[in-house]
Design a protein that fits this description.
single chain, about 270 residues, alpha+beta, Jelly Rolls, six-stranded antiparallel sheet, four-stranded antiparallel sheet, about 35% helix, about 25% strand
Amino acid sequence: MVWQKGVAILLLLVACSMQSPATGADFSTQAGAQTFIENFVLSRLPDPTGDAVTLVMNSPAIVKEGLRSWLRAKMVDSAENPENFNRYNAFYTCLNGDCDALRELEKGASPEAQQGQESTEQTSGKLAANGTSYQKGALLVGPISLPAEWTDFQDILFLDQGRPYIIVGEGTCSLWDNPPEPDGVDSCFVYAKWRIGETPQIWGQLELIDPSIHLSDLIEKNTGKPAEYNPSHIYEAVIIGEGKMLKARVYDGGGYSDNHGELKISVYQAV
């Protein structure tokens, strides 16, 4: 009987670990997780205590998979309500490993607390193409690794004809064997001082097909001016689908055998 009591206590502890100490949220089931998220999005939680990320990341795999489909549907339903859309999207992106937006929401879940911050983020985060402004919606795919030594293009995502998407290129790699300094190029620029001096230059290493364009050129097409070097090595641009599979690779006009590292590409909804 002692072992039975021990098992019962262990099961109780596991169940409790899936609950928020502040709200009693149960992420061991999809229904419990959806209730928590709905309350969070609609700002009915009186005082979030910073445990939403923990609940999401520790939920069972089967719950996570169900939540992804449910959240995608909720984001479609919230297309006319940017505030709710962004909150659903924060949970969705956290399920895919990027919890920064959800952590920001945890700092103040009410619309009043978020109003000033959101207006700034939405303004600074907008991108433009064909005279229309967009911002990132749900993550559709990525980050996908693009090894610098691979010569072939990789399939990324089928892009619907005429539909806008947001492409994000990130990371650094090297195009040389045993350079004096590691890495040296990112998705748009070469910044290796031993190679080009103090000022980074546009080389356009992230190459796309369907549509066929380099990310650096796509940025210039969006903005009407050359891409600007970003020390964090993250670049974004709006791309219009051609009804084909988007492909990508690291471009190197001088051969691939001496390359090292990887760039990464992600595709988001443009809303």
